[in-house]
Amino acid sequence: MGAIDPLATRSFDRRVAIEVKERDEQAEEEFTFTEAMERDERIERLVKEAEKTPLLIFDAEAAETYRTSMVAEATRRPPHWFTFRCPLCGKPRPLERTMLFGGGYPLCRHDEPHSLSGTHADEARRLELEHRLASVDVPGSDWGITDLFHPEVVFAVAQMEARQRNIEAGRDPDPDLGATLWDISRCAHCGRDLAVTRREHRLIGQTTCRLCGVNEQALSSEERANVVVELLASRDPEAMPRKRRCTCGGWDVLINTEREPAKLTWCTGISERERIRLALAWAERFKLSQWWASKLITSMRDMRDDGDLEDLPF
């Protein structure tokens, strides 16, 4: 492959930028009046939240400047289309909102006028030889399902999704300032820091990255416990969160409390009723909403008959 032509690259980038802008405007025109009203009400609420969100910035002038930028971001209409740039070759491409928020993976052929170079090129060639890029194309699109997912691309899309979700939630998107609602954390399936999650996802051990979501990777009992332990260790180290083997060979999560250790367990060696009882206590301790508590309890249920559970709240 020849040298990269800077002029051709800039020209391609401009064409993609124009395409994204036109697609975004077209999607906005197709928005119904009701959808637009609901979005405007949501924006108004987010602006108010941005004005009240605490910031870990001690310089008053810098804090005020940053808060002004947060309010400005919250005021903007959420885009329908984005520009995603491949972290391996630098090639931009249009990325639809439903793909960004729905776990989509932007395939890139790394072709002209952009190209791979150095270690990225070597690694990509190695992966292609190992996996022999097998793509199932969507008609009329270059999106597809493939067994060749590069972790750097997954991480780049995850960063983009987490940033956009925080902006639309009226939160500061910079994780270093401690005001984010959405973050990138460990995946409960593969154990890599590639999942876009909220605190609640991590508290109940339900985190999934794009790679595992598309490949339907089985959940790992140990990684699920690691997700919960890592969160609690960063938020409440005095509780000494830890994982422990359960009777069925999986992993439980334990924390210290004033009375006795609290436990989160999916162990099939104890009754479903007991698992749900412990889950309810866990949800109450961490003030999880009924919706999140219901998700946790759903993960505790199994298919065998374990008596009458109708008296439980979910």
Calculate the mean pLDDT score and round it.
77
The secondary structure category is alpha+beta
Assess the beta-strand content as a share of residues: 5-15%
Tell me roughly what share of residues is in helical segments.
Answer: 40-55%
Number of helices: 11
Based on CA atoms alone, the radius of gyration comes out at 23 Å
Note the overall shape.
globular
Number of strands: 9
Kindly report the spatial arrangement of strands forming the biggest sheet. 7-8-9
Indicate how many domains the architecture comprises. Answer: 2
Separation of termini? 60 Å
pLDDT < 50 stretches: 129-147, 303-314
Instruction: Characterize the biggest β-sheet.
Output: 3 strands, antiparallel
Order of helices and strands: HHHEEHHEEHEEHHHEEEHH
Model description:
- The protein is of the alpha+beta class and about 325 residues long.
- A hairpin with a 6-residue loop joins strand 8 and strand 9.
- Helix 2 packs antiparallel against helix 3.
- The protein has two domains: about 140 residues, no CATH class; about 120 residues, no CATH class.
- Helix content is about 45%, strand content about 10%.
- It has a three-stranded antiparallel β-sheet with strand order 7-8-9. The protein has a two-stranded antiparallel sheet with strand order 1-2. A two-stranded antiparallel ribbon has the order 3-4.
- The chain contains eleven helices and nine strands.
- It starts with 5 loop residues before the first helix and ends in a 14-residue tail after the last helix.
